[in-house]
Every structure is written in structure tokens, then in C-alpha cells.
Amino acid sequence: MIIADDIPYEMLDQVRDFLAKAIEPEKNVHVRGTSKKVTAEQIESAATFYLRRMLPRLHKKVRVFVKLARSKALAREWSSRSDDGLIVHGFCTWLDSNHRPREFEIYINGDLSAKTILTALAHEIVHVKQWATGELKEYITNRPEKWRGVDYTDGNYYEFPWEIDAYENESVLYEEYMVNAN
To answer: What predicted TM-score, i.e. pTM, was given to this entire model?
Structure first.
């Protein structure tokens, strides 16, 4: 058995790609980590549903790696608190290219309630859609962010148009998923 800590950091992407293609090539959502509130199957089901809703023509071409992390583990990857002192529910980044990327990694705080986890996942899938369609560019990695061709250098997190879009869509996606899941 190979443990992730035994793999050199520079090889992690290659190992992840190999495993995703070799083990489950037809899946475009891969879940790692655990939560006491939701199962990996629920996360996969919700993420697949959200992708189909947000990217009806592209969802099969997009691959998403979802990592359920504990608050402390999330803090190692990204600040566990936002600028306004609230616990970060999750974050997303692209893995391949900033020009209409197709591979993404989403971290979700697995210590939250089931509804909050699935809503945070919906929020991050909206960002996947924004990047995959070219609406959003250079988010997280470099400033300024570009939203629909307009540069943004500074501002309040809640006032950025991509965040407004994600917050407007997260509850709608969650509610649609819950209706369809039952």
C-alpha cells in the first residue's frame, strides 16, 4: 500500500492523473477525505448534478477532485478564516490552465453540517463553471482577477461579481439537488 506521504511532492499530479484515468476513467468527479455529515457518494452525486446544471455541454469534459478536509487541514491549504473572521467553507482552484481550464480541485470543510457542505460545494462548482467558460480568469493565483473581461484588483470579497454570482446560485443548486435526490 502506498501512502500519499511516501510520494514525492513533484509526482503527486502524475499519480493523481494516473489513478483517475486507470481506476475510474468514466468518472469526472473524484472525492477524497471523509466527513461525519456526508458520504463520498453524496458529494459525488451532488457535484455531478451541479456540474450538469452549470455546464450542460461541458460537464463531461470537466474533471473535479473534491477534498473533504477537517478545519485544521483546510487551514494548512488555505486560511481557515476569511478576511471578515468567518470560517471558510471551501475553496476551488484550477489545476491545468488558466485559459478555460478543465481540471479543478475543490476543498470543502468537512466539519460543517451536511446542508452547509453541499451548499459550499454548489458555490465552488459555480466557480468551476466561471473558469471553464472563461468568465473568470486568474482567480487565486494572480491579481488582478478578470471577470467577463474587466480587471478587478481590490475590493470586498462579497462585492466581487463572481462571488455575487456564486452566492446567488448556491442555494438554488442545493435546493434543486435535494428535490431531485429524494
So the answer is: 0.80
Length of the chain as a residue count: 182
Q: In order of start, what are the domains of the chain with their CATH numbers?
A: 28-181 (3.40.390.30)
pLDDT band at 1 (very low <50, low <70, confident <90, very high): very low
Residue 169 amino acid letter: N
Long-range contacts of residues 137-141, Cβ cutoff 8 Å, at least 24 apart = 137/98, 137/99, 138/98, 140/91, 140/93, 141/93, 141/98
- Residues 125-144 have pLDDT tens digits of 999 999 999 998 874 555 56
Residue appearing with cell numbers 469526472: 28
